[in-house]
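PROTEIN DESIGN WORKSHEET
SECTION A - STRUCTURE
LENGTH: 220
TOKENS:
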């Protein structure tokens, strides 16, 4: 279970303070598919980044299982992010000079898995996302939908507890976006992963177990 308790985030505390999150609390059950919706600027990305340990909260706590993410020191936090969290970004953030195989292998290399295990797991994952014939391609040779599939494969290759997807279909055409969503949902079902997805898409939100709506740094 994930427990978010009274999270606040003040940007620019010393200059012109801006409260992006004003005391957000909620829980997410294991294996749940949760959508976060709300207008641009309502604090969705800030909340996801804090939950995933990519950014720090000003006050409040985030617990994942029995661990307090908001208390983790940097060494444990890096390990936690790499092993327990998958993050699918709208802007992909792939390594441009590494091929698809190496991009997906990255979190496993950080975990110091054996070359044999890396090869097996990456190849399995590439089959799942339908990119087995692109293993040696660099990202610039891929379409947007293919890049997002690489991102999903990289996020899931460690079999993380929680996957965050921040507007994963925002840069894709409708048809490609729908196939990416389906992929994410199928994996959530197959692997029992908790998935938290930020979306502007009502159809996508309607397919989730629960929808949380953000407004001006609060849950509405
Ligand atoms: P959303 O993802 O819902 O569009 P964000 O979490 O990105 O919203 O941003 C919430 C608010 O915080 C916005 O008003 C945004 O301008 C502000 N904000 C986001 N990041 C920063 C930052 N690094 N510094 C200052 N303000 C920020
Ligand atoms: Mg955002």
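SECTION B - SEQUENCE
RESIDUE ASSIGNMENT:
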């Amino acid at each position: 279970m994930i427990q978010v308790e009274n999270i606040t985030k003040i940007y620019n505390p010393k200059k012109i303070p801006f409260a992006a999150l004003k005391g957000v609390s909620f829980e997410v059950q294991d294996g749940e598919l949760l959508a976060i919706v709300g207008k641009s600027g309502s604090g969705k990305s800030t909340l996801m980044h804090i939950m995933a340990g990519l950014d720090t909260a000003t006050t409040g706590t985030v617990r994942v299982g029995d661990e307090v993410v908001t208390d983790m020191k940097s060494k444990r936090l890096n390990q936690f992010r790499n092993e327990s969290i998958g993050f699918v970004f709208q802007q992909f953030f792939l390594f441009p000079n590494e091929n698809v195989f190496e991009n997906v292998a990255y979190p496993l290399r950080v975990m110091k898995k054996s070359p044999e295990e890396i090869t097996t797991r990456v190849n399995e994952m590439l089959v799942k996302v339908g990119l087995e014939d692109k293993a040696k391609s660099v990202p610039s040779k891929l379409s947007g939908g293919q890049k997002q599939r690489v991102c999903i494969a990289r996020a899931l290759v460690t079999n993380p507890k929680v996957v965050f997807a921040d507007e994963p279909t925002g840069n894709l055409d409708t048809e490609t976006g729908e196939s990416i969503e389906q992929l994410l949902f199928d994996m959530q079902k197959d692997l029992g992963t908790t998935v938290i997805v930020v979306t502007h898409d009502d159809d996508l939100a309607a397919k989730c177990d629960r929808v949380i709506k953000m407004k001006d740094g609060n849950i509405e």
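SECTION C - NOTES
Helices lie at 44-51, 74-84, 100-110, 115-128, 144-156, 174-191, 202-206.
The first helix runs from residue 44 to 51.
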